[in-house]
């Protein structure tokens, strides 16, 4: 009877601790859905302040200045670098767009001549005549084709309206975005200034075990995040260099803008530069320009081979997570959070991996079962 009572007490304690862990998890979910949307600028600022902490300490140690001055210099350098990079990219885009606008009439005339030559010499005109006769003789098929064409028109109209609406929303929302940007910058400054004091106060109120675990998690997340950004930057630079060299060797105009576009589409998950190179090469083969077509295919294959060779090593070295895990994280993130899941998914994957590395899940399991030896 005593043994039965001991087992009942033990399992009652297990259920109680399991209920406590479940309540804490539900509280975190509630905070994520109801509180985070209200304070997300300050959360972003806190993340930036944590990531900027090594730079601030380096400037403070090198220049022997106060923390406020070192933080101001660090923020000024980072923001200036971003603004100068955006300015140079915009200037290059404007120059290439001016050249493109000058050549646009010739390109349109070439496209019209190309379509006319295909229509007149390849028998497509006769094919259209046969199709029209067939539809006139078969009213049911004609009605089905008309319905499908109307559906395509409606879908295209919806897409165009959605694109214009999003552009209008972006333009009207621009003042709020600018204000949000300055709010994040100011919040980053104030959080980073008080970060050492806040860190010490939090550390005094927590046990040594919790402090060690939190420090290890933050260090691992910072290392993984910066490593992921560094790896993606290296891969994008490789893609841009290979694309620029290929465009220059092939003699393709607007090489700078096209290489920049290749860098941007390379950031897209799943598709990458294939969404640019494959349709373009297919059109060139159809147009009879086999030289450019084979050159673009060779460049695309070279980019894919370099990525396959370099990406696993970069991910393993800088992040510690395989590319397959990142693809899974992006896919699940997009399913759960939409387009923002491209960023949220990998961050959550890095967080889960960091918690696993510092044995947080094992500690939670030991807490639930009442094992205090580990």
CA radius of gyration: 29 Å
Residue ranges: pLDDT <50 for 5 or more in a row? none
Series of H and E elements? HHHHHHHHHHHHH
Strand proportion, as a percent range, falls in under 5%
Termini separation comes to: 30 Å
The overall strand count is 0
Shape: globular
Question: Mind summarizing the main beta sheet?
Answer: none
Structural class: mainly alpha
Average predicted confidence as pLDDT: 77
What's the total helix number? 13
Helix content: over 70%
Helix-strand blueprint:
Elements lengths: L1 H62 L3 H55 L2 H14 L1 H34 L1 H20 L1 H10 L3 H43 L4 H12 L7 H14 L2 H30 L3 H15 L3 H17 L2 H10 L5
Helix pairs in contact: 1-2, 1-5, 1-13, 2-5, 7-8, 7-10, 7-12, 9-10, 11-12
How would you explain this protein's 3D organization?
The protein is mainly α. It contains 13 helices and no strands. The longest helix has about 60 residues, at about 1-65.
Search tags:
374 residues; mainly alpha; 13 helices; 0% strand; globular
Put the structure in a nutshell.
This protein is mainly α and 374 residues long. It has helices at 2-63, 67-121, 124-137, 139-172, 174-193, 195-204, 208-250, 255-266, 274-287, 290-319, 323-337, 341-357, 360-369.
């Amino acid at each position: 009877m005593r043994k039965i009572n001991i087992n009942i007490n033990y399992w009652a304690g297990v259920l109680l601790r399991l209920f406590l862990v479940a309540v804490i998890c539900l509280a975190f979910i509630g905070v994520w859905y109801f509180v985070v949307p209200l304070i997300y600028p300050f959360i972003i600022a806190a993340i930036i302040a944590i990531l900027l902490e090594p730079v601030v300490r380096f400037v403070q140690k090198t220049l022997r200045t106060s923390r406020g001055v070192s933080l101001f210099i660090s923020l000024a350098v980072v923001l200036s670098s971003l603004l100068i990079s955006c300015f140079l990219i915009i200037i290059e885009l404007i120059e290439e767009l001016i050249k493109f606008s000058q050549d646009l009439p010739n390109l349109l005339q070439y496209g019209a001549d190309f379509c006319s030559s295909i229509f007149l010499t390849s028998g497509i005109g006769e094919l259209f005549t046969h199709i029209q006769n067939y539809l006139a003789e078969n009213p049911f098929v004609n009605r089905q084709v008309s319905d499908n064409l109307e559906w395509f028109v409606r879908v295209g109209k919806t897409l165009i309206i959605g694109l214009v609406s999003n552009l209008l929303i972006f333009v009207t929302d621009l003042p709020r975005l600018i204000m949000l940007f300055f709010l994040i910058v100011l919040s980053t400054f104030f959080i980073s200034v008080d970060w050492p004091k806040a860190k010490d106060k939090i550390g005094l109120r927590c046990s040594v075990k919790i402090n060690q675990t939190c420090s290890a998690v933050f260090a691992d997340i910072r290392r993984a995040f910066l490593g992921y950004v560094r790896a993606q930057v290296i891969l994008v630079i490789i893609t841009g260099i290979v694309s620029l060299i290929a465009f220059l060797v092939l003699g393709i105009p607007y090489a700078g803008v096209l290489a920049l576009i290749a860098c941007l589409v390379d950031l897209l998950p799943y598709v990458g530069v294939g969404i640019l190179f494959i349709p373009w090469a297919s059109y060139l083969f159809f147009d009879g320009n086999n030289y450019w077509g084979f050159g673009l295919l060779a460049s695309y294959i070279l980019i894919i081979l370099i990525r396959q060779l370099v990406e696993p090593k970069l991910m393993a070295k800088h992040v510690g997570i395989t590319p397959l895990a990142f693809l899974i994280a992006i896919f699940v993130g997009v399913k759960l959070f939409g387009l923002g899941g491209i960023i949220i998914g990998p961050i959550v994957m890095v967080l889960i991996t960091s918690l696993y590395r510092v044995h947080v899940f094992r500690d939670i399991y030991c807490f639930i079962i009442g094992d205090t030896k580990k």
